[in-house]
Amino acid sequence: MTSVVSVRDLRKSYGNFTALDGVSFDIEAGETFALLGPNGAGKSTTIEILEGYRDRTSGEASVLGVDPGKGGLDWKAQLGIVLQSTGESGNITVREQLTHFAGFYPNARDVDEVIAAVGLEAKQKAMIRKLSGGQRRRVDVALGIIGRPELLFLDEPTTGFDPEARRQFWELIRSLKAEGTTILLTTHYLDEAAQLGDRAGIIAGGRLIDIGRIDEIGGADARVPLVRWLENGQLREERTTTPGALVARLGEPEGLEVIRPSLEDIYLTLVGGYEAGEVSTSSTGEGSTTVTTEGAAL
Asked: Fewer beta carbons below 10 Å: N end or C end of the chain?
């Protein structure tokens, strides 16, 4: 497979503050890669460097075969970008805005198709400034995909969406993926990352603390089910790779639960462990990361 994004030992400092500290990863063609982490972890800084909006202090970065710090208009036309906020004045209609932006691209999507894809048919003639926050966010997404990008950056794309709108957005992203679009996604909704991502990287304190397929993040130990029950009024719990056998042995005790760790559970454990000094990282030089835990309850 071909790497659409390649990052090696990426660093960004502001005076004595280090925002990124040796981040390395690849994103393959057609892949949806979720970059996860708490606020201030370095996600937006990483994305802004890859989009060409922010200079790096050191390290190497390649996006669609080009150093993002040197990309020209032809390169930028291959990118779709949905920022956390746009600051658009909104003094034109949804249709006018999309038609205007479509004219910037050599192979733009049909405006009607995009309006339908983001669920704004009923609002296409409305002034953008009169839309709700969630509706304006849909306009942001529409502008990001109108140019039929090879690589789509989605920075917290479903902020302000209601649950139904989020599900509709997921279907849109799946359709883009089916067309071969490579997607870099940041989100605080871990279920969204689990639904859409092929792989994920977890960043904390400017460092990549884990990377891998969605169903492999945290390692095998992090995914061992937890069986919990009450025994003589006391809460008992046991982690086991064979929860069915344990449940059969226990019978039907009061309060019986079998809990299979979700991506959110694993993420919280990894980030909490890193912040507590229980998780450290070491780059392999191949764009992957080895995670070491010291007493973390994975």
From this structure: N
Do strands 182-186 and 32-36 pair parallel, antiparallel, or not at all (unpaired)? parallel
Q: Is 90 left (phi over 0), alpha (psi -120 to 50) or beta?
A: left
Residue type, 249: R
The domain of 240 spans: 220-277
The candidate with the shortest Cα–Cα distance to 57, out of 108, 16, 6, is: 16
Residues in the chain: 298
My answer on whether 9 and 153 are in the same domain is yes
Count of the separate structural domains present in the chain = 2
In whole angstroms, what is the distance from residue 138 CA to residue 141 CA?
5
In a domain, 189, yes or no: yes
pTM score, whole prediction:
0.83
pLDDT in tens, the chain (298 residues): 579 999 999 999 999 999 999 999 999 999 999 999 998 899 989 999 999 999 999 999 999 999 999 999 899 999 999 887 665 567 899 999 999 999 988 889 999 999 988 889 999 999 999 988 778 888 988 999 999 999 999 988 887 778 888 888 888 889 889 989 999 999 989 999 999 999 999 999 999 999 999 989 988 888 889 899 998 889 999 989 899 899 999 888 889 999 888 899 899 989 998 888 765 554 433 434 444 444 333 3
Distance of alpha carbon 166 from alpha carbon 144, whole angstroms: 16
β-pairing, 207-213 with 199-204? antiparallel
- Residues in Cβ contact with 83 at an 8 Å cutoff, skipping those fewer than 6 apart: 140, 155
For 48, the 3-state DSSP assignment is helix
Residue 158: enclosing H or E segment and its boundaries? none
Give the strand pairing for 257-259 and 234-239.
Answer: unpaired
